[in-house]
């Protein structure tokens, strides 16, 4: 039941993230009521905040006698917000209150709300809590990256900053309703900030007028989510079940979701509520008669376990890579296709950015799409070693391993990086190829000493020990002797120094000799291969 089911179904979820998550990780992140009380103090009203709130509540109950408690609370907050905004603006234009970065002229000519600009400043300056659980927060960042899309009512930039910080990737961000009208929106690795963002003060939704305008287009939000919910579950984080935003969406879902058994409905929608000191994920299936919907309700204070479960979902490529694939393929069709520029390129997650650059440069490309077992580009020695030693890893791992499997048994090649990062049993290599890879790994795993035994050094160097490459080069020996001495002392030399030498000196020499296609430099090439393998064992074996 519940989370375990969506993990076994293995579909990236939609995350709907509310203020509770910001309060968990950001210093002084307020609830809506906290924020209104804070700004009530700024406009210096004689009447206490809760006295005003009580008066407004009486008015709302009179105006809307059939409203539920949730609706009354929401209506009160929007009316108070409208009152505060008007008073705040009056005080700003009378120069009795100031807003950082905003002057009277700019506010007037650009029709900016001083209240919203000040709100934007407040949320833009929120800092991470110094005492936050670093391990849990790392899991949160990883979990957010596994979201097919993120929808949030928060004004702060916690979500997008977390993704950039964790992966160096830029999610596509839509503020307000823009993403629901934008044709470039594909629903993968996108953040929808439906109540606005601190980066765009005018987008902030907080008062009665803002919410009326927002509700006019709320059907688009529901439609976007419902279309994605065909395969992806939605998880509400940082909200209370009393939150009107959550309740309205759930009500919209109940009207549009197909009639199905309650278990299936419960596995589509999850509402996670914070329960202090609850060390387990307490899951129950709830049937809300008012909303006419069934969902899974989770109470917990153990967000680490929750995030670990989300992180365990793996569809092969990340949501970001799915979006990049769709973006790039669309660009190929629109930009390169009509130029007749499609000629040779193989797409993999590691070269998407390079492909987009080639399209922009009008370079000829080909795009190969199909079952990976039918796509195999055979690298040369130079291709393989250049890609591996420079840590580009642009050759698909399975293709790299197949190249190694087909190589002569006695030929030395670095391979541990690819072997450690691929489940050999899940590749399309045949049983003979897999055995050859495992035999090679077993042989190399015997350690560096067995490789060093094949080096024949001059007697005067047999007991010599060096801890830097420059001292070896200063001996002015033949190249193969120099390479063998470096190999013999590789474990004593700092790894960054050894890596630099291999990339800047050893690899170019090997490439030069390999291109000559003769046996003239066979001794040097053998010494270089031996050095590359020793470096690989030191660098990647463990």
UniProtKB/TrEMBL annotation:
Family matches, as Pfam families: SIR2_2
Xref: InterPro entries: UCP014677
Name of the protein in its database record: SIR2 family protein
């Amino acid at each position: 039941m519940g989370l375990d089911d969506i993990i076994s179904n293995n579909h990236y979820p939609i995350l709907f993230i509310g203020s509770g998550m910001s309060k968990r990780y950001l210093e002084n992140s307020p609830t809506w009521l906290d924020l209104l009380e804070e700004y009530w103090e700024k406009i210096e009203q004689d009447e206490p905040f809760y006295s005003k709130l009580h008066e407004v509540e009486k008015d709302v109950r009179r105006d809307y006698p059939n409203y539920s408690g949730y609706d009354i609370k929401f209506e009160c907050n929007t009316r108070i917000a409208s009152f505060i905004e008007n008073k705040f603006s009056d005080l700003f234009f009378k120069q009795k209150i100031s807003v950082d970065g905003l002057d009277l002229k700019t506010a007037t000519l650009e029709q900016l709300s001083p209240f919203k600009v000040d709100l934007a400043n407040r949320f833009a300056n929120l800092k991470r809590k110094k005492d936050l659980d670093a391990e849990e927060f790392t899991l949160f960042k990883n979990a957010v990256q596994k979201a097919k899309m993120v929808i949030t009512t928060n004004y702060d930039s916690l979500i997008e900053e977390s993704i950039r910080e964790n992966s160096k990737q830029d999610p596509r961000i839509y503020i307000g309703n823009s993403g629901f009208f934008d044709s470039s929106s594909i629903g993968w690795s996108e953040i929808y900030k439906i109540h606005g963002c601190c980066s765009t003060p005018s987008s902030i939704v907080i008062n009665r007028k803002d919410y009326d305008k927002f509700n006019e287009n709320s059907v688009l939000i529901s439609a976007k989510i419902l279309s994605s919910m065909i395969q992806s579950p939605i998880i509400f984080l940082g909200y209370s079940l009393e939150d009107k935003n959550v309740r309205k969406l759930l009500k919209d879902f109940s009207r549009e979701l197909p009639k199905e058994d309650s278990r299936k409905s419960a596995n589509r929608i999850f509402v996670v509520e914070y329960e202090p000191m609850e060390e387990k994920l307490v899951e129950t299936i709830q049937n809300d008669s008012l909303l006419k919907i069934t969902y899974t309700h989770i109470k917990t204070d153990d967000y680490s376990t929750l995030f670990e479960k989300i992180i365990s979902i793996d569809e092969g490529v990340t949501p970001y890579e799915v979006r990049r694939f769709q973006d790039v393929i669309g660009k190929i069709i629109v930009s390169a296709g009509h130029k007749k520029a499609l000629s040779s390129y193989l797409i993999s997650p590691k070269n998407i950015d390079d492909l987009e650059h080639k399209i922009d440069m009008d370079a000829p490309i080909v795009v190969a799409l199909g079952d990976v077992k039918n796509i195999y580009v055979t690298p040369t020695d130079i291709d393989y070693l250049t890609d591996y030693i420079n840590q580009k890893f642009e050759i698909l791992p399975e293709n790299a391993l197949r190249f190694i499997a087909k190589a002569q048994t006695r030929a030395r090649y670095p391979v541990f990086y690819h072997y450690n990062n691929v489940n050999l049993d899940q590749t399309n290599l045949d049983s003979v190829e897999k055995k050859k890879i495992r035999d090679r790994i077993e042989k190399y795993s015997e350690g560096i000493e067995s490789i060093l035994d094949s080096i024949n050094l001059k007697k005067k160097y047999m007991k010599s020990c060096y801890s830097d490459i420059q001292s070896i080069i200063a001996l002015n020996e033949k190249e193969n002797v120099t390479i063998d001495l470096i190999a013999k002392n590789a474990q004593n030399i700092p790894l960054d120094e050894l890596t630099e030498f291999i990339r800047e000196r050893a690899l170019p020499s090997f490439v030069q000799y390999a291109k000559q296609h003769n046996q003239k430099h066979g001794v040097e090439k053998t010494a270089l291969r031996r050095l590359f393998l020793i470096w690989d064992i030191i660098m990647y074996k463990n």
